[in-house]
Amino acid sequence: MPPDNQTHTRVMAISHAEFRRSLLPLKKYYQYTIDDDAKLIVISDEQRLVKIRLGRESHTRLGSLQMPSTHVTLTLSGFTPPELDVFWSRFDLCFRRGGGFPEP
After folding, report:
1. How far apart are CA 34 and CA 41, in angstroms?
2. pLDDT band at 98 (very low <50, low <70, confident <90, very high)
3. 35 - beta bridge partners?
4. Phi and psi dihedrals of 5, rounded to 5?
5. Residue 68 near residue 59 (C-beta atoms within 8 A)
6. DSSP character string of 49-98
7. In the chain, N or C: fewer CB atoms in 10 Å?
């Protein structure tokens, strides 16, 4: 039996518009709806449900660099532990950016 609701909060260096665009690859695996007025994204997959609430957009300063910042709250229900691992892998992959260290 899947565990009860789980709530996770993240502070992400992303604007609301970028967040919505970054979610597009998830359409391959899950259906979702976006309510821009409520800043709510609902992902559904059979008995599994994810509600993503986008907090107020702000900016974080690092010296002269200014980056967007959004508090994101995810409430998940109906996932077994293996299904949850798959969801997080897919979700995190949507927000992975290019870059990194050059090969030696």
Report:
1. 5
2. low
3. 40
4. -50, 140
5. yes
6. EEEEEEEEEEEEEETTEEEEEEEEEEEEES--HHHHHHHHHHHHHHT--S
7. C
Closest CA to 30 of 95, 94, 101, 98: 94
Q: What is the pLDDT of residues 4-20, one digit of tens each?
A: 789 999 999 999 999 99
What does the block give as tokens for 61?
Answer: 């300063």
Taking phi over 0 as left and psi of -120 to 50 as alpha, with beta for the rest, 48 belongs to: beta
* Close Cβ partners of 46 (under 8 Å, ≥ 6 residues apart): 78
